[in-house]
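Dear support,

We are seeing what looks like truncated structure output for some complexes. This example has two components. We would appreciate it if you could run it in full and send us the complete token output so we can diff it against ours.
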Amino acid sequence: MSQPFRIEKGGRIDRAASLSFTFDGERLSGHAGDTLASALLANGIHLVGRSFKYHRPRGILTAGSEEPNALVGICRKGDQTPNLRATQVEVYEGLETVSQNRFPSRGFDVGAVNDLLSPLFPAGFYYKTFMWPKAFWDRVYEPVIRAAAGLGNPPKNPDHDTYGNLYAHCDVLVIGSGPAGLAAALAAADSGARVILCDEQAEFGGSLLTETAATIDGTAPAQWVADTLEKLSANGNVTLLPRTTAFGYFAQNFVALAQRITDHVSEPDPRLPRERLWQVRAREVVIAAGAIERPMVFPENDRPGIMLAEAGRTYLNRYGVKVGHNVLVATACDTAWQAAFDLADHGVTIAAIADVRENPPEALQSIAKARGIRVEKGCVVTGTTGRKRISAALLGRLRGNGVAAAGEVACDALLMSGGWTPTVSLYSQSRGKVVWNESLGTFVPGQSVQNERSAGACLGIYGLNAALEDGYAAGENAAKAAIGRSGTVSRAQAHGADAGEGGILGALPHDRDPSKVKAFVDYQNDVTAKDVKLAVREGMHSIEHIKRYTTTGMATDQGRLSNLNALDIASKALDKPVTDVGLTTFRQPYTPTTFGIFANISRGDFFDPVRKTPSHDFVAGQDAAFEDVGQWKRAWYLPKDGEDMHQAVARECETVRKSAGLFDASTLGKIEVVGPDAAEFLERMYTNPWKKLAPGRCRYGLLLNDAGFIIDDGVVGRLAEDRFHVTTTTGGAAHVFATMEDYLQTEWPDLDVWITSITEQYAVCAVQGPKARDIIAPFVEGIDLSADAFPHMSVGSGTFCGVPCRLFRISFTGELGFEVNVPRRHGKMVWDKLAKAVAEQEGVIYGTETMHVLRADKGYIIVGQETDGTVTPDDVGMNWAIGKNKADFVGKRGLARPDLVAGGRKQLVGLLTKDPKVVLEEGAQVTKLANPPAGTPAEGHVTSAYHSPAMGRSIALALVKDGRRLTGETLNIPMPNGAIPVEVVEPFFYDKEGARLNG
Amino acid sequence: MADILTSELYSADSSQAPLLVLPDVTIMPAAPAARVSLRCRETGLALAAKAFGTPIPQTPLTAETAANRAAFWLGPDEWMLVAPESQLAAILSDLETHLDAVPHSVVDISHRQDAVLVSGPRAGWLLNTGVPIDLHESAFAVGTVTRTLFHKTPIMLWRTGPDSFVVEAWGSFMDYVTGLLVQSAEELKAA
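Here is the complete output from our reference environment:
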């Protein structure tokens, strides 16, 4: 359980809290405050996995979320979360982790044969290798590629965690809590602004937690962090969010944050969500995302033990871990020298500092000299050795255009620094365009497109004091822009940790055989400098093409580590300046984000609202099968005594026609149209005439869109001169209401009429069948129900069971029918009473399926079943519903379009199968021939098909080309088992004279 | 003041169990009330005010209250009037009488929506798990009323106190609203 690479003291880990965890089954120990990466390093473990394509042994390259190599699986609650970055995984007691992409073990991996076969897998090999023979694709190539692709194993079980959501608003959102971010938060908060400060790491402070070679206002940087956080937490207007990644910057300063709540906890309270999605709308945003160090592209730069210099320094100063005992530092800039000095001060042997530059600063050289560190100037690494960990590096001295071998240096770790790259991802997501900064040799944010500003290192402002200064200014400016005032926070002064000079891009020169060595540009996707050059040779000249051909920059860091090196290699190969080659776009999410946080609460019962009718519990208690109609749950059919659906529906149909049936029609859309211009408004909306409809009477209304196609229908009752009760289809309710409101607000604002949704004001019980009147009569007061006083298509107001009621005499079954509208909360009471009364008359409760069959008997259309958005009133034989003398209505001009008046349109017909027992399939095609040649267009399709108990046979409705002219002819319905012959008939089957519904 | 008024207008329904009782937040179903949708042009405002007994608010997001009365601004020509359930018929007829001479629409929507009372120090936080608008008191002061969304469902939200809100939703959406509120409050039980 010893941690041989842990230094005696120092670092921010809690040495008192020793934690036990496993990696590939090996039990190891770490401390509270460790990441998995720092704990593995403390145990001397650098080899953590195998690379994607070549299965090369890989170690930990970074100390941050950009980590490309150290991707691990976390085992928890019987499942595994793959591809988590070991640099972000916090160690807790009992943490179980596994390496990935290795078989049988990370030490011995048969896939490593790919490394030897690598000449077969150049960039673009997918496009070249798997082209022939064609038949091999399905049987060989794709299965093999699929088996080989990917790194970890996806989880197998449904997600057992919950995820929270919170909408938040602030004046200033500060992203990143390094020196610039903390200073910005202080300055913004001091103005009284509402501030949210988030950071992807477990602790606030960013680089300040690593910095030991500087002071802020005379104290250690980490102490200044603690003092600053104390001030911020004492301010009620500040929300502090550690472990929270700003992963998406969207329009209008809408920023999405992913807060990790339980992943770092050993035994989390099951009531806590695993993560929370913060949907933040910020008046102003300060991006203080910092900069990350660039790897150097030299041959074999990917061995375990090779790491970025600042990462090595972070593991030492923040986590108390030495990355090796004998460390070589290879650099092109000043900052890596400090890593060497810090390590040397903790007793680590520095094998050498190899600086690409001929003349590194004298000051640094003298510090190195004082510590007895060997310095090699104008020197590059040209290769490394060591199988599962670096054991030595080859040095080469730059000589004009070439490199001369300069010997081998033994080492167990190599820290490298090619310079710094500002993290412009979020700026780029905000739609800002980066600009090239020649003196820094990198891209930096340009003009702001949204209300944001970058501050500190992500803007290319390096050096501790400069970053603080810039952060304060950004915070003040952001507050001023957001709330019109800024505070007077006293600005801390830093000494030390200056910006430093230097940096290099692209592949470093070497004296090795270029065809034999691999110098990695994108570690995660195994893209080498050679691959980028090959892509250019093969004609990829745009960086976007190079990216897709080689996959460079397509790793989970989106190229934050690799883009600039790849760009430089491409620009040299193309002999064009980098600015002409361009940079690929950074997209959301900033780092990989769980599916769970996106699905969030939209799971199970809350995937979408589930709307239930007043009869729901009653029919559920009768074992009703339910059908989803939009968001509504509607009773579909109610089987009794082991009936199947067919038997239940047949019984329900027969009983309604014989005695009576009760049906919950509450879901139908209802709109109260009120005002002096109510009739005029309906006249304009619907095809039908309304002005002469007398109060107390109803009319069937047909609604078209501008193109002349049917979009909805329903019965409209006139309650008074200026008041109509409009019904719509269940699924069309919201759309019809919105369409009406749209016309009122934009086309006819002069009309004195208003619409109000009353869908949920009324529960609706439909009582249909010859005994319907007998059933409802005892409950009704104030309405004369006699056929003369209250004929078919009447509406009246009275009371029902003592509660206010709007009673409609209407029928969608062809039987005598009433629809009882009562205020919703009385719906259950009324339903229960009616259910009892219906039962006493040997009636039945029926569902939507029976409703469909009964209306098909009558040839009544269902919008969305007989119509599909391309069907006109004439197509379904409903020209009678069009007011011929009306000046205008929605769709009138559409109906005059040439293609709508031309012959050959599909028309609604009835179909009777020659075999009355055969029920057609809805959606089946209709053809003239029984066996039409392939490619023959269909004449139409079946829209509805049922067994009709009333007719004692199957019936169907269909839309068929010139269908009305084909009455009496035989057509065919080709099916897999042979064509079904059908006779074309008129589209109504039962009680054509309407004697029953007028009863 | 708003708190006192709503205690008469929106009171917990004693016939129903509380939906959530935690130290920092409670959710109680509200008793039924009379709700009327009033639509008219400017010509009707004074008449409606006289009939209903409160001014008809003309500032967006505001409410006017009087004893047993609340009038909510919901749109440029749309208001919801709330009163005790027993006064519905009288209110409808008063409005019709007073507004007779001007174009208007008065529609009973008493049963269209239900209300719940969400209160406690974490009430605003809990609502913001599904309400996308800013509920900070500086942005959504006591007395503010608005239509908005709770996740996928339209709601009406009225702040009756620093820590108390009335949430109204159409009847069939209320299970979704309260179900998600209760689920989202689960984490408040954690230590």
